[in-house]
């Protein structure tokens, strides 16, 4: 199916099923959960019986408003929901968050790496353009930091835990011209304001995170880790993602095309309870689907290796040893 045909099918024909898989007794972290898909994902997971849901947000006040709304609509007990600070544009914040998880959570069944940014304005955070820091480097760092805790929970409770990332169908449209640059310079080129094509950065970030998920899964087979690593894509949904591009035209386009946020969130809930067959896989619309475009064949494998080589260096520079997985 072409990208356009798949888009039409997703937006107008197919509706992801209402999630029914139980989250009873589970502890789940959802990043970027004060609004949009993250918030609706928390609402579903609470309804499905989770004991504890951590809303990991950069604005704690907004997170508390979201928690109050979820509590009001689900009648869950007040201690089911907690709001913790996490700013994905700062490595220090990601490290502090993971230290708090280690210190305070007796179990961790799923991490939904959902926080994401779409912008056409170049801003530097850490050593990268902000989209790349938020959607790729910090997200990978978080996954590697929390993987050992997911692994411990899986062993202790004889279960399988999940690291699930919100990717996007738009990875397929990434032009990613930075890949044509010299060896070892992909992230450096993406961080160069003068060479950046910001209209492509969001799509590139979603392509890179698919490479990371494939890589992490290959490094950590379920047979030894019991941690299922996958990524989902929710379709084009109502949310605040395009807040910087807001205007009357976008408003009309969204009205015609977008899925309700709650419907898109079902795909995240599915991913974080999907079976071992989803390990390392791209799961749009609750269906395992082979990735296409720049991820395919020998070229795709080579590109994944290059991206991983550069990213690994960055992650090891932030927290030495972090990329050694069980
Ligand atoms: N909506 C869609 O059509 C669509 C399609 C495919 C994939 N996605 C993906 O779905 C995920 C959720 O997006 P959404 O559509 O629900 O958009 P949204 O309503 O804008 O939500 C994005 C969330 O990410 C948070 N976030 C952004 N930068 C952050 C940072 N530096 N640190 C911590 N949190 C940060 C936002 O917090 P603030 O409110 O504080 O900014 C917000 O909670 C994203 O990864 C997005 O790429 C969305």
Automatic annotation (TrEMBL):
A Pfam family that this protein carries is adh_short
**Record flagged with keyword NADP:** yes
GO molecular-function terms, A-Z: oxidoreductase activity
* Keyword Oxidoreductase on entry: yes
Provide the alphabetized UniProt keywords.
Answer: NADP, Oxidoreductase
Task: Write out the similarity annotation.
Answer: Belongs to the short-chain dehydrogenases/reductases (SDR) family.
Write down what this protein is called.
NAD(P)-binding protein
